Amino acid sequence: MNALVVVESPAKAKTINKYLGKDYRVLASYGHVRDLPAKDGSVDPEHDFAMKWQVDAKSRKHVNEIAKALAESERLILATDPDREGEAISWHVLEILKEKGVLKDKDVQRVVFHAITPAAIAEAMKNPRDIDRHLVEAYLARRALDYLVGFTLSPVLWRKLPGARSAGRVQSVALRLVAERELEIETFTPQEYWTISVALETPEGAHLPARLFARDGKKLDKLAIASESEADALRQALEQARCRVEKVEQKPVRRNPPPPFTTSTLQQEASRKLGFSPARTMQLAQRLYEGVDIGGETVGLITYMRTDAVNMAPEGIEAARRAIQERFGETYLPEKPRTYRNKVRNAQEAHEAIRPTDPTRTPEDVAPYLDKDLLRLYDLIWKRTLASQMPSAEFMRTTVDIRAEGTDGHVYTLRATGQVQTFDGFLKLYQEGRDDEEEGEDSRLLPAVKEGEALTPVKVEAKQHFTEPPPRYTEASLVKKLEELGIGRPSTYASILQILKDRGYVRLERKRLVPEDRGVLVTAFLESFFPRYVQYDFTASLEEKLDRIARGEENWKDLLRQFWTEFRETVEKASALKISEVLEALNDILGPYIFPRSADGKPDRTCPACKSGTLSLKIGRYGAFIGCSNYPECTYTRPLSGGAQEGEAAAAPAEGVLLGHDPETGLPVTRHQGRFGPYVQLGEAGENGEKPKRATIPKGLDPESVDLEMALKLLSLPREVGRHPETGEPILAGIGRYGPYVQHGRTYANLPSVEDVFTIGINRAVDLIAQKQAKGSRQVIKTLGEHPDGGEIQVLTGRYGPYVKWKRINATLPKDIAPEDVTLEQALELIAAKQASKSKKSSRKSTTKG
Questions:
Q1: Cβ atoms within 10 Å of 689's Cβ, excluding its own
Q2: pTM exceeds 0.85 for this model
Q3: pLDDT digits 0-9 by tens, 691-710
Q4: What angle in degrees, to the nearest 10, is found between the helix axes of 171-186 and 475-485?
Q5: 70 by DSSP, 3-state: which?
Q6: No. of H helices and E strands in the chain?
Q7: Of 546, 571, 569, nearest in space to 559 by CA
Q8: pLDDT, position 776
């Protein structure tokens, strides 16, 4: 009996085909085969949330190939990934095949495996099941919720907050976390505090470092010593203090190994240790899971990489223990296997943790077959897996309390702490990374002292400190926070972060997430008028309900009805708001962020130019800014951000990151983050205001990855590729507003990637220019769909920039909307505005003639 097996990835199909043999044919769906069209009405609340699906052009080819192969097969086996998305892909494929009428009497089975190995696949084939309807319904509910929020809320944003891109159910909550952290930083007031350290000498001449811990039996908290005068008084009281050892305590402590990786912890650790973004981590993990050619055989190296589970299958634990024994010996093998429990809110533990499919396959074994980044990620997963089954690290922690009778009549307690490792345990192989510098136990050995022994203070030192604001989120720490709050799922973390960056709501600066002005505005708008839908608990409770649907404990349509009734009412109220009402609400919320602070710490909205006007948030064609209420008499304006530190310091550009020096001129080359995005700069501004040479870092190129070599390449643009053979005029390659291009005269042709700008030769450049000239000056960027009155709507490039075209209506795109991001709803609004403008002009002409 021959069977058709459908998976989602061509790499996965290739690997599995080798394992199954000639009686099976394995084809890939290439991910999701259909989706909700990006237009209003794809989810219809008026008809019990009916969903209209559409197979895109690329997927149609793959679906037709699957249908054709099924006609020649006796059995259909759906073997997509073992999660909700995988279940949904199988369901979509099955529904399309039903519509095509090719199923007939075919036997349909669903199989799942968590590792792509011969044993795992053979076991899965022995245990087929039906498609899990509850998992599919959880997927449908999530997709409908995301669609309803996006397509209902986004148009309100566009009308009330020009320059905003769109809003999403989960992304908006993640953005709120980043924006709120920035507001905390902006409004943070440092507090001064002092610490007192005392160097003591033992009778044997050894030195014992201690710190002031308590006064008259009362522990001093971190901010207890608030001024230099207090610190100086304490220093003087302790310099001649009579000191003796009051208590010596030694106790063994253990540090347990961390559990094996989940999706979230893998993304966090790969970010901290390897510098990978969550998206990059998942891309590499996918390749390790689907299979790598190892000496002529394709082998899946890790188990499924989208999981909340921290437990390993028994065979995985046994293999890990075997690898530990072989590599480290009996000393590093606990008597019993370690087990772990998940403490994360709403964790789904249907799968096992991420681990090597064969822990005895070491990183050294696979190094010849993997590229650098794949090997680094495999090494991280392998070490974490083995470490999770190794013994605890053991330390001896010593605490010495010293009684100090000060010359001021007070009795002080000085404390010395130290810790010495007595057995490395799992630390022999693996040390968990951290996001920030954290205070830990002093890793030092203290000199031997006895209770009652006299000590002599030899140096007393007072140090000044200031409290610091909370750090901005890294990608790793934001993923961790989302997981703690129960927001999002393993398959969504990477896409959430990528969407926020793509929409221009946040940027990465020195590996920290910084909200852009538009991100801060969107968050403030949603908090003002849609507070329920950006609440952390509300979003997490929706995730819980989706989990209940997946378990068959709740009806998915009931969830949608309940959500939609309340959400629609909120949208209707917000739609009725005036722009002035919106701006005043944002002024109140963002006051500490956008206005300078007066002496009492409150926002000062007095115009610094005319002194009588009131500063307020304004919305213009190019986004938000701060302006005076006395306009047009007073024309004072300034950018949105930097208001909390009004003045020259706030207006000065942030110091750039020095990348090196230009070998030709010797000038410094720096990387900056400007109002309009990241850029590199050669030299500094001249005394007479001459601007240094700058080059934008294009989209798709991680600013953190730009080194001196790449910066000099960017600054050298546009470069001359050569001379056109017919005209003799130069052909240039560069990077413009719409990406990389080649140019000849007034003809511009797009290039596929930034790298092509530096490598393209004259022959290919001439061909691209010729093709572009043959097409004419207009080029279709994307087709959006049908106008309600009939006729196709397209986005095109023209001589004067991108525009939307419908029949004989051409509507220019605003500069703050990228042509690739235009939605059908935005296009319809632009077309309607253009029609109204034409009607007014026509009416004025008629009146003039009359």
A1: 6
A2: no
A3: 788 888 887 777 777 888 88
A4: 120
A5: helix
A6: 23, 32
A7: 546
A8: 58
Residue appearing with tokens 């005209």: 727
Among residues 240, 669, 208, the alpha carbon closest in space to that of 450 is found at 208
pLDDT tens-digit map of 408-433: 999 999 999 998 899 999 999 999 87
**How many beta carbons lie within 10 A of that of residue 650, not counting itself?**
14
Residue 224, CA atoms < 13 Å, CB-side half-sphere: 12
Q: How many whole angstroms separate alpha carbon 834 and alpha carbon 826?
A: 12
What does residue 369 show for φ and ψ, rounded to 5 degrees? -110, -5
Q: What is the pLDDT of residue 428?
A: 94
Ranges in the chain, pLDDT < 50: 346-349, 437-441, 642-654, 687, 846, 848-850
In order of 9, 30, 147, 227, 370, the CA distances from 291 in angstroms are 11, 16, 34, 62, 11
- CA 52 to chain CA mean position, Å: 30
All structural domains of the chain, each given as residue ranges with its CATH number in brackets, are 3-131 (3.40.50.140), 140-188+471-577 (1.10.460.10), 192-256+394-466 (2.70.20.10), 263-391 (1.10.290.10), 580-644 (no CATH), 657-775 (no CATH), 779-849 (no CATH)
How many beta carbons lie within 10 A of that of residue 551, not counting itself? 11
Structure tokens at 160: 């009330």
DSSP string, 326-386: HHH-GGGS-SS-------STT---SS--B-BSSTTS-HHHHGGGS-HHHHHHHHHHHHHHH
Give the β-pairing of 677-682 and 192-201. unpaired
Q: How many CB atoms lie within 10 A of CB 640?
A: 20
Q: Output the 3-class SS for 76-121.
A: EEECCCCCHHHHHHHHHHHHHHHHHCCCCCCEEEECCCCCCCHHHH
CB 74, CB 107: distance < 8 Å: yes
**Strands (E) located in 758-800:** 779-786, 792-798
The Cβ-side half-sphere exposure at 692, using a 13 Å CA radius, reads: 19
> In angstroms, rounded to a whole number, what is the distance separating the alpha carbons of residues 241 and 722?
82
Rg of the chain over all Cα atoms, to the nearest angstrom: 32
Looking at residue 648, its pLDDT comes to 30
- Report whether 507 contacts 516 (CB < 8 A): yes
Catalytic residue (one of 289, 304, 493, 803): 304
Respond yes or no: is residue 304 known to be catalytic: yes
How far apart CA 164 and CA 40 sit, in angstroms, is 19
Count Cα neighbours of 457 within 13 Å in the Cβ-side half-sphere. Answer: 26
| pLDDT in the model for residue 843 | 58
Structure token digits, residue 101 = 């009428």
Residues 472 and 155: their CA atoms lie apart, in Å, by: 30
Give the Cα separation of 119 and 132 in Å (integer). 24
What is the three-class DSSP state of 507?
strand
User: Edge-to-edge strand order for the sheet containing 693-696?
Assistant: 657-661, 668-674, 677-682, 693-696
